[in-house]
Amino acid sequence: MAKKLTTREEDYSKWYNELVVKADLAENSGVRGCMVIKPYGYAIWERMQAELDRMFKETGHQNAYFPLFIPKSYFSKEASHVDGFAKECAVVTHYRLKNAEDGSGIIVDPDAKLEEELIVRPTSETIIWDTYRKWIQSYRDLPLLINQWANVVRWEMRTRLFLRTAEFLWQEGHTAHATKDEAIAEAEQMMNVYSDFAENYMAIPVVKGTKTESERFAGALETYCIEALMQDGKALQAGTSHFLGQNFAKAFDVKFTSKEGVLDYVWATSWGVSTRLMGALVMTHSDDNGLVLPPNLAPDQVVIVPIYRNEVEFEAVDEVAKDLMKQLRAKGIRVKYDNRDTQKPGWKFNEYELKGVPVRIAIGPKDVEKGTVELARRDTLQKESISNESVVEKVILLMDEIQENLYKKAILHRTENTTEVATYEEFKEVLETKGGFILAHWDGTTETEEKIKNETKATIRCIPLDGKIEAGRCMVTGKPSVRKVLFARAY
Amino acid sequence: MAKKLTTREEDYSKWYNELVVKADLAENSGVRGCMVIKPYGYAIWERMQAELDRMFKETGHQNAYFPLFIPKSYFSKEASHVDGFAKECAVVTHYRLKNAEDGSGIIVDPDAKLEEELIVRPTSETIIWDTYRKWIQSYRDLPLLINQWANVVRWEMRTRLFLRTAEFLWQEGHTAHATKDEAIAEAEQMMNVYSDFAENYMAIPVVKGTKTESERFAGALETYCIEALMQDGKALQAGTSHFLGQNFAKAFDVKFTSKEGVLDYVWATSWGVSTRLMGALVMTHSDDNGLVLPPNLAPDQVVIVPIYRNEVEFEAVDEVAKDLMKQLRAKGIRVKYDNRDTQKPGWKFNEYELKGVPVRIAIGPKDVEKGTVELARRDTLQKESISNESVVEKVILLMDEIQENLYKKAILHRTENTTEVATYEEFKEVLETKGGFILAHWDGTTETEEKIKNETKATIRCIPLDGKIEAGRCMVTGKPSVRKVLFARAY
Known about the structure:
The structure is a homodimer. Chain A is α+β, with helices and mostly antiparallel strands. Helices cover 36% and strands 28% of the residues of chain A. Chain A is globular. At the A-B interface, strand 2, helix 2, strand 3, strand 4 and helix 3 of A face strand 2, helix 2, strand 3, strand 4 and helix 3 of B.
């Protein structure tokens, strides 16, 4: 294993790319822009899925599955949606291959052309609302609270593993409601579910807010989001939840009869998070030695490495290791015991450091004699020798402690890298020297937002929900503003 | 709710189609051949997934995710695979849409044509083996035991919900081994995992066997399968497991260095089951009143329906119902308490019968007085009044009893509908009058197999693994045969 990673200081982007591949999270495939999610990466994603799925079901949602393909004409039905999504898409035009007559291989059969092209879903609002028309007649059918786990495709020109790939995995919730207020409450609830998940499960602090008009989802009246700050001072949008008003109901003619017998269009939301969260995880916690995983998400929370020079030593060490493994597993801890004789302990230490296993336990012949083990924390890299009797209790405590420590470190990083500025000069200087989140007054116009974006590459990440109301003047135009908004350069 | 289903006697195929839609399992979408899996159907599929996933992990497999798209040229690399799969496929030829210049809507941008067409995966051997080349160098990297949960697309001309759809959901296992024996053992193990799952979890008896050469997976040296018999006497292939030899390793140049330092191609298997199992489930257990679900798979194992005429009665019934629900949930039973006041008890009874909930508990004012409830079994449609004190215990027993009863009924049906024949005349008569599985001697040639298929539409479902060795003569050609093989008309 060629362990040495490029350091974050040297080249953050290169460090990220190397780490994702070397820690066995994902790699590029033979298909442009499409990634292979490797078993170790997928195991982390499965843990995210399981927890999110639990949270969705707890809030009354059910899973379902809708088609991968969407007829081209569906996209034209919702006016603003078509501009946002019917662009860089994978388009299916034919349904058959055949052997070339000249024996040169297989070719697309020109006789098998589809009457209407099919688009590989970039998001499923259109096909789902086309279905909801059949499912919704009365207030009794509402609310309809559905989620889908699926793959989607957006033909991105520049791709990066997890952060921006042509195909990615995600969940998309699509709900229908009898009233506007209920739909808004749902969109807000799901933003809160996402922020709970990010903070308490992934140990990633996020800012909750709403998007400006120009950054809203195509077809939404309001987009709620959670924004996280990466180690390099760039922002990452970690999840969005949209209040769609009656736009899709009108586009797909979905009406219901209310309790009072009145016919009206239903109100909608949609919300999603994706394998992009894997990128956020890497760029929030990891270091120059490799991945650092919060215990909640680690496929292996503890790895036990035996140290020995001969068969006799191995047997003594092995007995202690197996006993410890059993005790830890009985407490619900996910333990890997790496007793392979094909790799040396030093190799294994590097390997599990690279893979971010929260706790490493090494046991050698001297430990057996003394009744101790060596315990190392991945987050702080601290090592200590502790007695066999107290190791289980210690590990249990460490699970919470490491989880919490990672969150605190991330909060501290964000605090240190959030700057309030008064002038555009100051804004530009902070962006160039320090980066991070920048809070500044803005006049609320798309023109000013565009100007700032064009001149500095910084965008308004969100209008924070907990931002204080304070009179001020737009840093660019000097026009009045009632609150600061959150800017950053973003992934 | 228009409850009355077409009966199975009247028209089995129509009964199936109606039931799948009315019981809220799935429905056709606006996209030709692609289904929408509705929340109730998806909840059953999730239970199948969870159990299979547990079984795969218990046998040492890990999940991963590979691209949806496969470059066209990959299919040509394995000679027999290309004939089997590179035919009726969804072909992506373009990656962009744009607004038509004449304002007529959106069109495919002719400038965005892909250099090489991409095929939406019909199965993933080629893209996975292209990846395995990078993952496998040494015997230390073997065995590689990977599974993927994914959607796949095969452009079927005639589709039926769950049984044959253009897009379906499945899992596909793809493993790599150092030796031939190990790969064969893996393929057999996974066939056994599938049969365990079908029999013990879905209550569907299956025959394990191998496919004849002409029915083998394209690229396999041996295909193991499990075959189930539906109520109408037709067979359904419920799962397959393939020993692929070194075919894909050779096609994609995947070699490993053995412990002894010898370079060789690796040995492969692949295996899969799909949402087709949902069709098998429906056609094994259900009746003219609707779905019948084995307790293992039922999203709701028990439904409680309150019966009352006024608020006072409701309050008394509600108290008993809620208490019972709590007690049952504490025992791990999945209970739904349907206290909606928008539907009458009779409507609810029909609804849950249609949806196959294994046990229904009705509680009325008289029950409250007497300290009893009315308990109805979905499988036998028997009702009984039992005391509040014994209901929890009774329900727990019923979970096993119903599961077992469904399996026994299915076994009995299969026994009654499996016929051994000696002559081709007898074979044809049984096929026409009774259907079912037919055991007959066959001379082992593809010619005879084809002749039988063309003349009778019956195919060899498998060469049963537990079939007894007995000298005989092929029913068609009179040539010698050492065992009877299993014929049927099939889905």
